[in-house]
Structure formats: C-alpha cells, structure tokens
C-alpha cells in the first residue's frame, strides 16, 4: 500500500468522480453553461468533498487543453498536475481558522490585483471562511463585490450561518450534505478497485454506516482495517467497528429515557475511560437530540424514540448548559454526570409546548412563580400583571385566528396589546405599518432607520412576535424593512417671520418621548 493516505490518493480529480450526486450534477450544469461565477460558497459538514470539488473547479478554469467551452479537466497538463500536487502558484489555498485577521485579508486583496504567474486565472480557496473576524470579512466583501476578471473565489465552510449575510449574497452557494450510505459505498468502491482489494458490498455498507456521512472517515476506517491486516469479512469488520465505537449516543439516550441513573453513569464512565472527551460526547448527544427535535417538528427523519417534544427541548437546554460548565469543572465528566442524575431523578423541569392557538394566553409573563419565590418586579413586569388583571371575563378579546392579512383592526389590536407591556415599543410601532402577512411571517414597513434598529433589538422583537402570535393565532415571525413615510396631513403654525412651519402629527408625542428617553432632552 502506498505511503500516501488512501483518501488523498483517491481524491476525486474530475466532476464525474465526485461522489455526492447532488453536488456533482449541480456543478456539471454550472460548468456546461459556459460561464462560471467568480465566487462560490461550498457549505457542508467535514469530509463531504468541499476541498476536492474546489480543486476540480480550479483545474477546469486553468486547464491548458480546455478551450472556450468549459468541460472536465484533462488531468495531464502542467496546470492540472500542479494543482493536484498543491504546487500551483496561481491556486492559493488559505485556512481562515489560522489566517483570520484583517491583515491577512489585506494581503490577499493586494495579491488579487496582480496578474496570474503562469495560469489563465487566479483561484483563491478559503477554507472555514466563517472563522474570519468581522473586520476581515468586511474587507473580503469589498473584493468579492468587484473582483478582477481573472480572479475566482471558492469559499468553504462547515458553518455557513456564521458567515455574514452580505458575503453569502454575493456567492453561488452549493450545499454539501452528509453523504448517503450509497454514495459512500461508491467512494469506497473506487478505492478498493484501485488497490485491487476483494471485498463485498455488504462489508462496504457496514463501513459506510459507521462513517456518519463522511467520505473521509469512511476511507480512514478502511485504511485502518488494511493497515492492521484484518480480514474484510462481515464478522471481522462488525467486531472492529463495535470495538472502535467507544460511545453509542442512542444507547445513552435510551438509558436517559428509561431513567436508569446507574447505567447512564456507567456509560459515561466507560466512554471517558476509552479516551472520548466529554466535550465530544456532549456534542454528539446534542447533534442527535437536534435531529430528534427536527423530526418531531416535521423536518428530517431522525426520529428519537422514548422522548416527547418537551423532553427533547429540556434535554437540549440541560446539555447546552453542561457544555458551558466544562471549562471550570474540577473533574471533566462531573458536570455531565450531575446532569444525567438530575434528569433521571426528575429534577429537570419539562414544559409541554403549547399549540399555536394557545400562545396568546401565555405570551406575557413566561414563568409563573410562587409568591414566596417572586423577587421585586420590574416596571415592565408590573405592567404585564396589571394588564392581565384588567381584562374582565365579560369583555373577551376579539379573535383574529386564521386571518389572511393584518388590516387596520388587527394592527390596532396589536398596538393596544403591546402598549401596557412596553410603551416604547408601541410608540416605535406608530412609525410603522404592516405590509404583508402570510400566516407565518409579518413584514412591517418602518419609516425611520432608528425605529427599525430599535424594533429589531432582540428583546423588543421577542415581545412583538409573542404579542403578534397570540393575536393572530399562529406562531409569527416579524421582519422590519425601511419604507417611505406616507404622505401626512401636517399642522402649520403661523409666525411673524415664516409660515408653513411643520410640526409633528398629533399622535407622535410618544415617539418624541421615547427619543428623549434614549438620547436625553
């Protein structure tokens, strides 16, 4: 077996060799269109082929035998060979995790202006681009907006949500999803064929299942089996994979579902003794819980047996808190052991999510405390309680459940409900108007930039969304956009010197008061 790792040795060199079917077909369509975008964003988990695809695109752009019509790289010219060997002067690979500062990006910007050394185009492959600092990301944005004709960017990331939206909007995004078992078997098949190894499809399927959607991890497992000279039959490979799997997330969660405290603690101890870090153990568990939460919410198929939706949410919150406690723990596994005990002994509060039509009754005052446990209420909390007590049973609130649009009547009801909770929000909303509502998303047109920024504040938006959800009878997300102020009838004041002095509308005094509260008199 060659000294080169199998993953690098059998890394895809052409589009046709890419094992992710969705990515392979998307890139084929883009390439055959004859015009490649100057900025790509490859987003997806580790080991799914992002860097391999980036290098193939670089070869297509610089292949010496490629004509005006773009196609597969030849793989034999000096450009293709040097890119494969990572020695091409005009294809620059940059790791944003270690070169994340603004000085690094400024150096890149200066280099971008230079002509290619030997190739037709310069290609910059920036891995983990989400790791760039805000200043560096903004500096990169300026280059992406108007790159020279000979420059192409291929950005890669495992966390696209952490990348600033303005960069994402200027790139052509391709999603690299976790590989399916069939795609991994295809990838492994290319390796075993090249190494002239006889192995059944069933064995390759076992390895594929253990790789958790990563092409790279699958090849590493195969390579370890070969280096240890193990038989490649189902029984031997199954035993190897079982020994290798030092922590079974599903088994651990099943113990928590059954509230088996002792066995859950033993499972943690066994994993730690086998060399698994508690941080990795927790992250694996949280990923599995996330899959279960998405499944019960109608997204994805990673169902989680033994837990209701409220229990999954409670466990996610519990383990997220545990992750934060790890750095200061005197014993690494102690916070996780405590969390497992608290869960199994029923000391973790589980709340059942309410149907959307019941949210209105709960939007104000999130947690009811016993009188002896209540601390001094804030003015906002006092207003909330006053509002609750002021609603007489004989005066039921009008129901707007199932409305198709937010008309004047509905909008006035939202304003009236917000006012006793937070008068500042209500005053800000009077400089806004509802533009559209699709049953889930309420878009507001806001007349002033300052008002928009205040309404988008997390605290203010949360209150507004909860009020809107309760009144509209459906979980509602609020989005604010700037819009022109409507033509208004103005009041005039005659003075000896000048007429037509514009004053505010009669209803704008509260807006002025809010501004005074923020900026001072």
TrEMBL record:
Species whose genome carries this gene: Candidatus Woesebacteria bacterium GWC1_42_13
Membrane-spanning segments: none
The organism's place on the tree of life at top rank: Bacteria
Gene of this entry: dnaX
AAA+ ATPase domain span: 36-181
Example GO molecular function: ATP binding
Quaternary assembly: DNA polymerase III contains a core (composed of alpha, epsilon and theta chains) that associates with a tau subunit. This core dimerizes to form the POLIII' complex. PolIII' associates with the gamma complex (composed of gamma, delta, delta', psi and chi chains) and with the beta chain to form the complete DNA polymerase III complex.
NCBIfam families: dnaX_nterm (TIGR02397)
One GO biological process term: DNA-templated DNA replication
Descriptive protein name: DNA polymerase III subunit gamma/tau
Family as reported in the entry's similarity comment: Belongs to the DnaX/STICHEL family.
EC number, as in UniProt: 2.7.7.7
GO cellular component: DNA polymerase III complex
